[in-house]
């Protein structure tokens, strides 16, 4: 049997070498089809199917506090609410808090801006993460007055500190305080987000403030936990809803009925991929269509080649080869082609993986888990084997007819059924049309996006980021004084015509600061969802530097200061949506349900 298989392989290889044009066409087609499918299926496996890289990761849950009046967005939790839920919940255990913000860090080299996670002492115990070096936080280290300590992420430790094995015990300065490194995390993905360093809540100048400790409405924290053994996510949600109802009844002033506060929980794994799932499923369907087109194309070429091999087959029948042996020979050739195409497809998959992962990373942080490894090799092997079998089965009927004719007459006497070949051609064209239409629509969308006027002129505009230390610039007046000194100095540089400041760049990719609003004179009834708008802090020079045209009114002026009436500049879309029916200038807007008002002075 093995000797016969070896003969089939050698003969199949010689046949393919003798037809270089046919072989190259088949291999290129298979490489593109199998390679694209390998890359897409590998991403789907790494994002949707692969378990979280934590012990019992399927039991990790994310708690949310949606507010109906704010469009269902979660308000987050306050420390007081977190403590209340810890006491009331039994189905969800080990509740911990998390939030992330940037700080400046000094020591062990150049000053750096680091993304810092502020967490409960039991954060890593809840996730089930053990440090690579040192230890994690102790319960006493999150209490007020505790000595500041830090845990470094593995990526930051390697990238900025060269993987220094003696880093534990060394110190950094953050927010004017000395922090001691107590541990380094292993190289595992970080959730809910990627951070450079971790600190306990007591070390954060914001989280340790009095307003966080005593105000139930000081919300914004993310809360994670673990399902208790034997408790389903449905049961945990029901218990959470009952606990939330008791809190709403005990402190009605913190949960206005008109706002529509609720509480819910979801598995972290489901929440992380919720936005990515539809896109990945669409990619999956596209990949399947592409593979079907490849199979139809290769089957069509195979049928044409099979018809040209009648004389060869007749000779083999004449020397005693049966239909089974001929069919096995063709199967061997198809599998050989598929595996060679799969090897080339693996190169295609690896080459396109970085681009595909970067695309998926826009929808889920789990994209960082996709890697070139055993799963990709197994997927590639499975696709190659499956494609080879399909390619062997598709021409099976015409091949059987051809074998029978050759065995009977020494020649087929006729070509492969035109009807069957027509079926493959029509199938190939139909599937290709579906993909081409989809590709055309995507291309048209990309062209339209490229032609969209962003509302500013990016030509000859340079940007720079200035990160101020919280220890020196915690008060707004100090930040304002720094800005007032910075702008004239920059404007005095050669080649600089205008300077503007803003807290975020347009289309910068960061999450916008969004707030619910109310326009004066337009009452919002109880239970009605208030409209929301993205806010940005900026100077008047911001509009001049970006070439944003003023359409109505005026821009900010030096006289617009904290001790004068607050003003805002709105864009044309905002004015058209919320300020229709009159001149926008002079209209007033509130972001705190009418307690304070700002006046619109211009439209850009």
Low-pLDDT segments: 410-415
Between the first and last Cα atoms, what is the distance in angstroms?
Answer: 80 Å
Per the principal axes of the C-alpha atoms, what is the gross shape?
globular
- Structural class per helix/strand content? alpha+beta
The averaged pLDDT comes out at 84
Identify the strand order in the major beta sheet.
2-3-8-5-7-6
Tell me about the biggest sheet? 6 strands, mixed, barrel
- How many β-strands, per DSSP? 17
Number of helices: 17
Q: Tell me the fraction of residues in β-strands, as a range.
A: 5-15%
Helix content: 40-55%
The Rg value, from CA coordinates, equals 32 Å
The count of domains is 3
Summarize the structure.
The chain is of the alpha+beta class. The chain has helices at 2-18, 20-49, 79-88, 123-127, 154-161, 210-214, 233-250, 268-273, 276-308, 310-318, 323-360, 374-393, 396-409, 418-451, 476-491, 540-546, 572-578; strands spanning 60-64, 92-106, 112-119, 133-134, 149-152, 171-174, 177-184, 197-200, 222-227, 264-267, 513-516, 518-519, 532-535, 552-553, 567-570, 588-590, 598-603.
Give your account of this protein's structure.
It contains 17 helices and 17 strands. With 604 residues, it is of the alpha+beta class. It folds into 3 domains: 2-52 and 274-413, no CATH class; 66-262, no CATH class; 476-603, no CATH class. The strands form 3 sheets. It has a 6-stranded mixed β-barrel. The longest helix is centred in the middle third of the chain and has 38 residues, at 323-360. The radius of gyration is 32 Å and the shape is globular. The model is unreliable at 410-415 (pLDDT under 50).
